Structures
1.
Amino acid sequence: MSTKPQGVPSRDGPPDHTTGLGSIDPKPVCFQGPQRKVVLDTNVLVSLYVFADSRFAPLRARIECGEWQAYSDAPCLDEFRRVLGYPLFALTEERQEAARAAYESKVIPLDGARPGPLVSLPRCRDRDDQKFLELARDAGADYLVTADKDLLRLARRDRLRGIFRILTPEAALTAA
């Protein structure tokens, strides 16, 4: 009898921490929820595509299955590429490329004309985070998933009601 929670992708052996690849089955368990548009900030991408944080495997499975449509643009992808090269992570070029390719193969690029209305956004204290707010607005995202304290502070102030929700990865696991 399995004790694995329902809806969590199965694994064959330990997670592959070298690239983040292989930590989710090629055909992950798909959820039966509504399709959502999401933006993932860089810290979440590193957790999902580099370190294959098993707590958040269902989030990556939602992207892999197409239940979540992940959106990005050139500035956000550039930040992901730059962060992958940080000496702190000590990732080889091959590991960096594997993480980028895994995410970029699933992401919907939003470059050029923006489909969403230009709604005024609050200013984030950290200017580097503003691009994620703008991307979520421009993509018409349901969720911006982040662990960033400045972005989460905006969520607590409820300044984005009716535009999109800012969620921690933990909260995103239970989001409908």
2.
Amino acid sequence: MTAFLEQYAALRRGCAERSAGGIRWVVSEELEGLGCLHGFTLRFGGVSAPPFDTLNLGYNRPEPAENVTENYRRLAAAAGFDFSTMALCNFCHGDGVETAAAAQCGWGFPNHPAFPPCDALASNDPAVTLVTLHADCMPVFLYDPAKRAGAMIHAGWKGNSLRIGEKAARRLMAAYGCRPKDLRAFFGPSIGPCCFEVDEPVKRVFDAAFPGLPAARWDEARGKYLVDLVMTMAAQLFDCGLPVENMQDAGRCTCCGEGFFSYRRDKKRFGKTGAMAGFLRVPPRA
């Protein structure tokens, strides 16, 4: 644990924004430079009405499905991939990892099959664009430029405590021969330790999943524990061999930052909120 915490102190933080056609998304410039098409959407540029204004990408929200589909079409056009290539994760706040290829394009969308309940999709097929949904839960992008394989992960507190990041990384190793030293990880915007308040039972879950890791600290003024999901994600990837120097945190909180949907924040005002998407597609092999 000491070795991890020494490295974690030097974790790279920061991200870049891209935009086209009114759509905005966050990226890692490192992953871009390695040829990995990816991003995490902000809430702008779509057709959804309040409180889902305007780029809601969750079909499980109470708004017309045709609005959500139009939002996906706009995102695909802006980010430079075909709408028909997307495969949507069937998230359940668990630790399941499924693989996807061209045969699964369209899965998770209306009038298509769905994946089994899972919280990560892995692929080495450049024909498929992996998609996960988020509204405070962490999007994690894994990419191996040597094997040109990657994974898109939905990591809420439950999935994080179940070590979904480590399980997705190990699936990449088992399915595509990836090596830990080659994998790159980007932690997209999610609820930060500034805002993620939990009570004693959840704190104990993290203590059990990450013994000795100071991921939950007591805040006397709030009377709550504040959990650092980035620390727990980095720790589980470190445990399966990724050096911290291969990881990057966007450093943006969806709850107190601007431009994001946030379940924690918006449920207090509206009782509901929209969903943002993480997307990842690996480049063709030479």
3.
Amino acid sequence: MATGVTTDLPAAPALSGAEWLATAGMWLLLLGGGLWMARLLLGRARRGLPLLAGVAWPPATWSGLETFLLFALEIFCVSLFAAGVGKDAPLLDRMAAQGAGSIVGTLGLVALLRGRGVSWRSLGLGSNDLGGDWRLALGGLLLVTGPLLAVAGFLNTLVPYEHPVIDCLERNQDGWGLVVVAIAAVVAAPVAEEFFFRRLLLGWIDTLCPSPGGALAVGLSATAFGLAHWGQGLGWVPLIPLGVVLGVLARQRGTLVPAILLHALFNAVSVGLLVLQISQRTPG
């Protein structure tokens, strides 16, 4: 989720000295954190150590046709919930319905796969080290947030970023609006997207076309993840490298948990920055 905002609100007032220092400090922290994590990873690579402690990722037992049908079922569920509130319903209601449909759809996919004998571990939904998963997610957040948001900000100057979350926050700057956006962007989207792109799609490609470290599957699933956000300006571009990081994290860890956590944290930071940006542009 990029942070560029295109609105009809008045331009933001000039930043005061304290606000400028706070903004500069935030970017130094984000970019500095990314450089620090990159240095740690390069250090491990130079010593011949793996970037992550590898855990065998169970091979996918579903076909390409099943992957497509499961994706279609997810889309159908989201569309069904959205149709339930009507296309003329307020944007906040439609977003809440789509988020609910996404969660229900993902639970349905899990139930179908479990019904045909796929284990929880094969689905990537278990964790033997939740503390370690959190540490990996936080480290990944430091690594990607600054660079990707900087790229997203630059791309937004070329093609304005558009997203329903932005419209929703502009029209509903109250507690309920924030709750709906948080559930949709920080809960529903990470769980649904990680389950499909980083387990169903990546797992199927990895089984169909094995490659060293699963590089081909990681790259193709990350590209599909980015292109799934086509139509939101150029915001899909930085989502491809984010998808690569998420794919490597999930595949090497043998579970979706750290990828879901990182995705949720990244979206939470993006939504938080959007809220600050919109509040500055709103007349006081």
4.
Amino acid sequence: MTDDWVSLFSGGKDSSWALYRALEEGLNVSRLLTVHPDGDSYMYHVPETRLARLVAESVGIELVEVEPGDLEAESAEDSGAQGDAELEPLEAALTELQGEIDLVGVTAGAVESEFQTHRIQGMCDRLGIDLFAPLWQEDPRELADAMLDAGFEIKIIQVAAGGLDESWLGRTLDEAALEELEELNEQYGVHILGEGGEFETFVVDGPHMEKRIELEYDTEWEGTRGRIRITDARLE
């Protein structure tokens, strides 16, 4: 049997970068695993996770999906308890995979979130597997520049922070956008990579993908936050 890795994957830039770096390091990533949260989540990227199916096809790696109905834990009284509850279906899915593949580790895209990383590391310890987290504690701007230099095409699909208006929806995260985000970081404290939930992204193309993903969408805006709603998505 080969040493198999599972990429915890949402389609956003951070999990995509973790996957890309794992492949660059020669890790045998044999599965992508996407959790589809039902509503807001402390642990997972939420918007448009269904697009992970197209990414999996473009990358050529089998996708495992955890459906909203599998998230059976009731709303917890505090964020910590809810985070623990949200982790349960992910751990169950990985436990099941251990019976199918020679699972040696998972990839994760956390940059600064102790909340997420502590729980994922604890899960890995319980399962006896490794954690590959190439973004952890790295400089956010340097990470963003590295993504662009590698050829990632990143779309902003949700915003919820001061200074981010409707014009950011569907915008490409390029050099000009990063410069503006640095200014917004100084003015409002917006995280340059959006790790505080200020914005969410989707990677439509990258060096690890055989085909680019073309998106068509509508935008929704509610006062101080908004998102895009995908109407069509296809591989070019």
